[in-house]
Design goal:
The protein has helices at 33-43, 60-70, 94-99, 118-128, 145-156, 168-176, 189-196, 242-249, 258-273, 279-289, and strands at 19-25, 48-54, 74-77, 91-92, 104-108, 111-115, 137-141, 160-165, 182-186, 201-204, 230-233, 253-256. It is α/β, with parallel strands linked by helices and 301 residues long. A six-stranded mixed β-sheet has the order 2-1-3-5-6-4, sandwiched between helices. Strands 9-8-7-10-11-12 form a six-stranded parallel β-sheet, sandwiched between helices. Strand 11 (230-233), helix 8 (242-249) and strand 12 (253-256) form a beta-alpha-beta unit. The longest helix is centred in the C-terminal third of the chain and has 16 residues, at 258-273. The radius of gyration is 20 Å and the shape is globular. It binds 2'-monophosphoadenosine-5'-diphosphate. The site of 2'-monophosphoadenosine-5'-diphosphate has 16 residues, from helix 5. 2'-monophosphoadenosine-5'-diphosphate binds at residues 142-147, 165-167, 170, 187, 205-208, 218.
Length: 301
């Protein structure tokens, strides 16, 4: 059936020259990475393609072997494979080693290189929002995998950190595993209250506020959000979380979590292709794929 596609304009042809990239995840059907990367490839006129690969945990070794066997150029790695993939690779970058997780694999002459672009992506999105990290105090909520990359990036940029988690032991353990000015404690009303006004940046790395429990916030309702601080909520579904609304009510600026996804992707894109994609375009592509429900986007501008 003729669908009216104009060759070379709307159809993307995969040829013998096309370079293949993709993402290993489980599940992966809702990943926004394919639309982000394929849009950026098309925008830059690159004969590259990005494919979602549903890789069950048991199949990860075969999937990594397939990168080698099929000559796949680069792969993103997402939940639940970010740690399990490490022993299957040939080399790790210092960032991946320090964060203890790999989100990007690069095929090199020396074999498969495991990298982590979460920290660099996080740093770049703060830069885009004109936020200077050095000398600031950041209040980081949560102590899971995402927090580890955020903490690594902030300490490297010279911030002081207060790391609060529902399970305080997890925050204490994360703090012990890094070098720098970092205090760990419980994510409770009194502790948040005592640090709120001392912090210029608040980062939510917990999943609280994520769809469908959109009325929840990790920030206690009775504590005013610091109006001079910048909020970075890593939750992006929805973009306007309850926490974002708390920050807006206090007059604070915010960055939504889709920017983190975009910037870690843009860093991976750059590692694979050597080119800088348009992060605005990648954001629009991902936002549209999500349904573009929250039109209000503040990236500090
Ligand atoms: P990720 O890799 O996305 O960081 P994770 O490692 O599962 O995911 O971590 C999830 C984070 O959200 C943790 O800090 C978790 O707190 P606990 O360590 O106490 O489990 C936090 N989190 C999840 N649900 C939460 C809730 N209802 N209230 C507070 N924190 C919550």
């Amino acid at each position: 059936m003729n669908r009216g596609i104009v060759p070379g304009e709307t159809a993307r042809q995969v040829s013998g020259q096309t370079r293949i990239t993709g993402v290993f995840g489980w599940p992966v059907a809702h990943s926004l990475s394919p639309v982000m990367h394929n849009t950026a490839f098309a925008d830059l006129g690159l004969d590259w393609c990005y494919v979602p690969f549903a890789v069950a945990p048991d199949s990860l070794p075969q999937a990594v072997a397939a990168i080698r066997a099929l000559g796949i150029h680069g792969v993103n790695v997402t939940v639940p494979h970010k740690q399990a993939v490490i022993p299957l690779l040939d080399q790790l970058t210092p960032e991946a080693k320090a964060i203890g997780a790999v989100n990007t694999i690069l095929t090199t002459e020396a074999g498969l290189l495991g990298h982590n672009t979460d920290a660099a992506g996080f740093k770049r999105s703060l830069l885009q929002a004109n936020f200077e990290v050095r000398g600031k105090r950041a209040l980081v909520l949560g102590a899971g995998g995402a927090a580890r990359a955020v903490v690594y990036a902030l300490l490297r940029e010279g911030a002081s950190i207060t790391l609060l988690n529902r399970t305080p032991e997890r925050a204490v353990n994360l703090a012990k595993s890094v070098t720098g000015d970092i205090t760990a404690g419980a994510l409770d009303l009194a502790t948040v209250q005592s640090w709120a006004d001392k912090s210029q940046l608040v980062v939510n790395t917990t999943s609280v506020g994520m769809w469908p429990l959109v009325d929840a916030s990790p920030w206690p309702e009775s504590v005013p959000f610091p109006g001079d601080a910048l909020l970075y909520d890593l939750v992006y579904n929805p973009r306007r979380t309850r926490l974002v609304n708390q920050a807006l009510q206090a007059g604070a600026r915010y960055i939504d979590g889709l920017w983190m996804l975009v910037h870690q992707g843009a860093e991976a894109f750059n590692l694979w292709t050597g080119m800088h994609p348009s992060t605005e375009l990648m954001y629009r592509a991902a936002d549209q794929a999500l349904g573009g429900k929250d039109a209000a986007i503040s990236n500090g501008r």
